[in-house]
């Protein structure tokens, strides 16, 4: 099998991993000849699924001894198999990188022989890139479940980011679909990485120069929609990981049908809008000061598919409004639907000089239709009567479905809701 | 009185602006022009600047300089005047002007800066280098091939941003000779310094790179047909850049095939939603389990096997021995462990004076799985779906007996009971508590001992087997 055939199989097998960011590592490694990391993500291309290609995202091999039902590479699946050599991955990465096709490498693998052996292979790729090729670009390694702590530490030396996939939001889901994986094991692997990151940072702060360890932090992925678990549970798990393990990102991946799927899985994908709502809710937790419990207002513990979570929160908490943009604290401003983080900053610096009027907000391009009943400006007072209207939800919700999807796509990028 | 000034670059503008500011020239008195603009009729008649005063130019916030550097690259003809007006206002009583993001001038500047920043970002993303190796007539072995290699890209930015983006490429591709050509300007890096040059038409760009084939393979493979979002793609990868991106040729085909690929994936579900749980009798006694199992259709193995081979032994057994699946002989006789492996087990039981009737012997999978080769039926390992489907029978058997000890023969029952990570080679003979039973032990499968070609190894394994079997006698 030639490299091209392997690439087709092993990229295809990696496409279900949502992780794509290449940002977070602020400075390029000393002594690098080819490749840099400068703290911001560059998406080098986009596929028709609207997702960006920033990394060469492949598996080292899609042979696997595990049998996770949601995974196309599980041992019992009939999918065609392939395995790259370390040299092949190194050469592909360097050649793609030199042509500016990609921002770096995302390397994962099915588990062959045992966890440690597989992890060693991943490390060999990263180490060869760094030492033989003097490659300074981004490397994200997926750690292998149950790999030993010393190997994880070694991996963190060469990689910019490490990730351990939590895969499914609850213990029960894991039991059902990935019986070999246990949440405590996954979380303790994350904890091991976190401790090492903290230790490195601590040493840096005390003036030492420790070898770098996963400077871009760690992330994880959760499959959503393969089980009945509601969004509230998903967000609680995410929030637990953000605070407990200091993860940089939690990726949500709407379960999408896979070839050779096990019949116990749903045959259709859940609406992608659900995945999008989870990302919006995730932003609310990370940048807007919301907690998981606040965000999920619906009785069935799921996010509304019709309106964004911030608007849903506002509708459920009308007593909080109207918020006076000229007086309210930053935290309060962040809760107004249609006003994003950057606009809150702009509002705060503007109002130091003069009171804000409605025209100012419109000029800042806040989503006025959504925001108008919730804000008070120097020349606008929506009045409590408006807020009390029963059909308020309908009034402020985006007009048509089409519009909502477009709207959704843009806020997925900026995170402003 | 109006001053007409010709400015091309940010540096020039900065010098002129400083001079104007020092001399107190108000924005309304200045007209800037650039290369692209019509030459002004009054250029020649430009009046003398007022005499230079001794004043130094006032300082401005660094954020302004940062913004001006970007805005200078915008194609808008009014940018120089807008910048000067803002500079004037900043230095004439409106020091915090930049914070007033809704001010007309600041708003316009921010919009231009945003457009330029986005354009620079897109250039970093959408430049595609093509490797060009200069042909050398000299077959000189001393010539380094890398020195003859150049990576050349043709890119068409919206604004004149080459000088803003080039340092990034120099940092990133330090040990590489590269050139970026655009219609208005070009830049090269020789691993030492950046050299800027004139614009180049697309016809001068190299046309292909052999690696593009691999890149397209990657592009097509990483696309998930189950989630098509074309608007999003076009928003982030504007169509006007597509011409220089080799992979975009594939988009029409990928889109066209997407829906068919998804329905094929969904149609190709493997396995079965069912497990033996669907066939479970309400009464959990061994006898009713055995008769219910005869009708089990939870997996396809029942179709080829002669019969279901259920566990055998007394319900009061203190020891349960679990094998993988019935073999050829077992399938014909309908009883577990009656073939050659069964004989070895019987002998071992006799050695330890264990009565076979006092233990319960069963398998993880209850039907024989095989491939036919001529007249022979060759044993085939059950896959994990078959094991999963059959597992409720084993669970029910163990629940009915509640033994003190379970002995797993070989890897299949061991991984079914201990989990997939369990290795018999490393952990045989250990007494381990599991969800199934407080004393669960794994050992070799008798068939594995029989297959050992080396007599010494076979004897050793046999001894270990008996030793492990003896462990079941300790309570």
UniProtKB/TrEMBL annotation, chain A:
Keywords assigned by UniProt, alphabetized: Iron, Iron-sulfur, Metal-binding, S-adenosyl-L-methionine
The name this protein goes by in its record: DNA modification/repair radical SAM protein
PANTHER family named in the record: ENDONUCLEASE/EXONUCLEASE/PHOSPHATASE FAMILY DOMAIN-CONTAINING PROTEIN 1, TYPE II SECRETION SYSTEM PROTEIN K
Required co-factors: [4Fe-4S] cluster
CDD domains the record matches: Radical_SAM
Automatic annotation (TrEMBL), chain B:
Keyword DNA damage recorded: yes
Coiled-coil residues: none
Pfam families on file: DUF4130 (PF13566), UDG (PF03167)
Alphabetized UniProt keyword annotations: 4Fe-4S, DNA damage, DNA repair, Hydrolase, Iron, Iron-sulfur, Metal-binding
SMART domains: UDG, UreE_C
Signal peptide: none
Tree of life domain: Bacteria
Classification via Gene3D superfamilies: Uracil-DNA glycosylase-like domain
Keyword DNA damage: yes
Record domain Uracil-DNA glycosylase-like: where: 310-470
Database matches in PANTHER family: TYPE-4 URACIL-DNA GLYCOSYLASE, TYPE-5 URACIL-DNA GLYCOSYLASE
NCBIfam families attached to this UniProt entry: SAM_7_link_chp (TIGR03915), UDG_fam4 (TIGR00758), UDG_fam_dom (TIGR03914)
UniProt family annotation: Belongs to the uracil-DNA glycosylase (UDG) superfamily. Type 4 (UDGa) family.
The name this protein goes by in its record: Type-4 uracil-DNA glycosylase
